[in-house]
Design a protein that fits this description.
The complex is a heterodimer. Chain A is of the alpha/beta class. Helices cover 52% and strands 10% of the residues of chain A. Chain A is elongated and about 150 Å long. In chain A, 25% of the residues are buried. By secondary structure, chain B is mainly alpha-helical. Chain B has a domain at 246-382. Chain B is 59% helix and 0% strand. In chain B, helix 4 crosses helix 5 (80-95), helix 5 (80-95) runs parallel beside helix 8 and helix 8 (137-147) packs parallel to helix 11. Chain B is elongated, with a radius of gyration of 24 Å. Classes of the chains: A alpha/beta, B mainly alpha. Chains A and B meet through helix 11 of A and loops of B.
Chain lengths: 383, 382
């Protein structure tokens, strides 16, 4: 060995000589090349632009859809092509991208990256849990608590004790007002870390909201029950006055007394201060196909009194001035589709107490025709 | 008005049974070991179980330490009926007023042949209670509960507990875990056990440790319909803890919020007007028609006593007044039939309806009561 090295050893002189010779050869080689201007490089006036395009030096990420520098494309392929990468590397790359975007608060971009990472289906529960958990965080910061919660659930499927996912799940449930579930998640976090301050506070908030919700439900329930029993008594009293109400036998409900004309909607039958019923009433004038809506017709009032009010001044449509209380006949339709008559001196209460008067749609109605007029004759004939 | 956590007087030693009885009992010993023939073991246990059915029998058995040690050892028997029977014997023995002293003080001198010396009865029971697949976990809870009835035994048990690997944290964990035992044991008797243990201040301090979340996990059980044993045990525990005046304010604070838990079982379905409702804690507002009161008078009494304890200091009395506890007690009083509960209720209402000017002191326990009056009170309470 030693001999060999000694044999190969060059003297300084020899070395210098060799160097000079090589230099000379290189110069000759260069000089022998065909003389041509260097054109492959970046033009001096546009070098900044070119530099920006180069993936190593670019300062901005390319816009989606923009033409990509071939080098960029190549790098992208190296990093993201499923054929070049193992799913696990791919998932990790996307995760890092997502984290980068997340850091700069580009939550939507981060979500896209994490989603790609999830699509890689790397099968490593740690990475997958992280991808879901991080995507959940991005959703959370965008205020999309439902999606955030869903991702937490996925992350927890991979890693049931993922503390961050558990905490965020609790937060999301709180935001979505699922307080029961929020408390469950809080308890799971507290199982891992007993003194987690913000979770203890959150749990308390949830319990408080839950209590309030339960209390409000109970209150609503009680109010509804009270209303129902009030309605029942009211209904019973109406029936006691002898009024027959359509459908009144099958279950008592004030809905059946709700006026079906919008003009009378706010005037459901009620008691006045003397415990007299006040009804909304409709007068029909078949001659002109017109109706009058009487908002408050006290059961103690007679028809005469009511009609005097209605015809105090002659209505516009009564061109012939024929309509006045004492010129009218008052009819009502009974359940057998026959007509009943009402006398002017009858009170509303008396009429409603008749066996064959049935209140329909919460609103008693009467047909008014001018006595012995052609219209009346026509009406009676057709009936 | 100075109540103390409930305890019974400690028992003395028992008279030695006749030589004949001792001889007969010792005859049984050779069958009461893990390796004995199953049929003989079963027969021997049966006769022991019959003996422990009577008070005299119990007294004789308690005096033969070797039998007691053997019974503790047989808890680990592979045969379920054997383990069950020995547990049943120990339940009977521990239920006797003298039982705890003898069973908690077993010496290590005797060891049943061909087996290692069993652990203390406390540790053996806990082993079964912690074993998810044990068939005698509930029986063991009963033994522990029986063994901890008087203050002296509680002290002994506390020390024996410290020797085991099981801490209070672990016990609370399995106690509050639903269906911990897979063989259907409910561990409800840990409730009365815990209640008994809280006669000891060290246990009360543990439960009232603000750094730990113990009492908060027990509170939901004040309305636990499934078991009166568990419910009563936990309410007893709460009541005993309310005697720690220094913790009263913490118990009432948002962190624990004990008051609604104590009041809710006392509330019925009475309707209050909006003003009264709004003053009550949220949990007690607008209760539904089907709301039932705690059916057990002893438990109702404990609940009232707990609230009464919380009224010791002025600021807490004020808080309880502000929370409209009075209306709940007023309705309870009109509904209540049990004389003892009525008295307890009246005692509490007396405090609540008086103004602080009338009471005139911060801490009710610091009121000096002249001896003659105290005596009169005692007679009245009895």
């Amino acid at each position: 060995m030693e001999n060999k090295t000694e044999n190969n050893k060059m003297t300084d002189e020899e070395r210098l000589e060799l160097a000079a010779k090589l230099d000379k050869e290189l110069d000759e080689f260069i000089n022998s090349l065909p003389k041509k201007k260097y054109e492959d490089g970046w033009p001096e006036d546009r070098w900044e632009e070119e530099m920006e395009k180069h993936p190593f030096f670019m300062t901005k990420t390319p816009e989606p859809g923009a033409e990509l520098h071939p080098l960029y494309e190549g790098l992208q392929k190296l990093k993201y092509d499923p054929e070049e990468n193992e799913p696990e590397d791919l998932a990790t790359s996307y995760k890092e991208d997502g984290n980068f975007n997340f850091k700069y608060k580009n939550y939507r971009l981060a979500i896209l990256s994490y989603t790609e990472g999830i699509k890689a289906k790397c099968g490593n529960p740690d990475i997958e849990a992280t991808l879901y958990n991080n995507r959940s965080a991005a959703h959370y910061f965008l205020g999309d608590y439902r999606s955030s919660l869903k991702d937490c659930e996925f992350a927890l499927k991979m890693k049931p004790t993922h503390e961050k996912a558990l905490s965020r799940a609790a937060q999301c449930c709180y935001e979505c007002k699922k307080f029961d579930l929020a408390v469950e998640y809080c308890d799971k976090v507290l199982d891992i870390q007993k003194t987690h301050k913000s979770i203890i506070d959150l749990r308390r908030k949830c319990i408080q909201s839950l209590k309030l919700k339960e209390r409000n439900d109970r209150k609503k329930n009680q109010e509804e029950k009270k209303k129902m029993s009030e309605e029942e008594t009211f209904f019973e009293e109406i029936l006691r006055c002898g009024v027959t109400i359509e459908g009144g036998l099958g279950g008592l409900s004030l809905e059946k007394l709700e006026p079906c004309f919008p003009q009378l909607a706010a005037h459901r039958v009620h008691f006045d201060e003397n415990k007299h019923l006040v009804w909304p009433v409709v007068f029909l004038y078949p001659e002109y196909k017109i109706m009058d809506y009487i908002q408050e017709f006290n059961e103690t009032q007679t028809f005469e009194e009511q009609l005097l009010q209605v015809f105090e001044c002659s209505p516009e449509w009564d061109r012939e001035k024929k309509y006045s209380p004492d010129s009218l006949n008052i009819y009502f339709e009974n359940p057998k589709k026959k007509l009943g008559t009402v006398k002017l001196c009858d009170t509303l209460g008396m009429v409603l107490a008749l066996k064959d008067y049935v209140v329909k749609g919460g609103t008693p109605s009467f047909i008014l025709l001018v006595r012995n007029s052609p219209a009346e004759n026509r009406f009676l004939e057709n009936y | 008005m100075d109540w103390k956590p409930r305890h019974e007087e400690r028992s003395g030693t028992l008279p030695q049974p006749s030589q004949e009885t001792v001889k007969n009992l010792k005859e049984l010993l050779k069958f009461l070991q893990l390796g004995a023939r199953l049929d003989l073991k079963a027969l021997a246990l049966e006769s022991l179980l019959a003996m422990t059915g009577s008070e005299d029998g119990i007294k004789s058995v308690l005096c033969v330490e070797e039998i007691l040690v053997s019974l503790v050892g047989l808890l680990e028997d592979n045969s379920e009926p054997i383990a069950k029977d020995s547990a049943a014997c120990l339940i009977n023995l521990s239920a006797d007023i003298h039982g705890p002293t003898y069973l908690l003080n077993l010496s290590k001198n005797y060891c049943p042949p061909l087996q290692s010396s069993p652990d203390t009865i406390v540790k053996e029971c806990l082993k079964h209670i912690f074993n998810k697949e044990s068939n005698i976990a509930d029986e063991c809870c009963m033994i522990l509960s029986n063994l901890s009835r008087d203050e002296h035994s509680v002290g002994l048990m506390f020390d024996l507990l410290k020797e085991t690997q099981y801490g209070f944290d672990d016990i609370i964990n399995i106690f509050t875990k639903v269906d911990y035992n897979t063989r259907g044991a409910k561990l409800n008797y840990l409730g009365p056990w815990l209640s008994n243990m809280t006669q000891d201040q060290r246990v009360r301090e543990y439960i009232l440790d603000p750094e730990k979340c113990v009492i908060q996990r027990l509170l939901p059980y004040t309305e636990y319909k499934e078991s009166i044993v568990r419910r009563g045990g936990i309410i007893g525990t709460l009541r005993n803890c309310c005697f720690e005046v220094l913790s009263n304010q913490w118990l009432l604070s948002e962190e624990v919020d004990i008051l609604p838990r104590l009041l809710l079982p006392l509330a019925g379905n009475e309707e209050f007007d909006d003003e009264d409702n709004d003053k009550l804690p949220l949990e007690l507002q607008y209760l539904p028609e089907d709301k039932m009161r705690e059916p057990d008078p002893d438990i109702r009494k404990m609940l009232i006593e707990a609230i009464t304890q919380l009224c010791t200091e002025k600021q807490n009395r004020k808080y309880i007044r502000d929370k409209n506890a009075y209306v709940i007690l007023r309705e309870l009083h009109t509904w209540e039939k049990d004389a003892a509960v009525l008295t307890a209720c009246e005692n509490l209402v007396d405090i609540l309806i008086r103004t602080e000017d009338e009471i005139g002191c911060d801490n009710l326990k610091e009121v000096d009561i002249p001896e003659d009056i105290a005596e009169k009170f005692q007679k009245l309470d009895v």
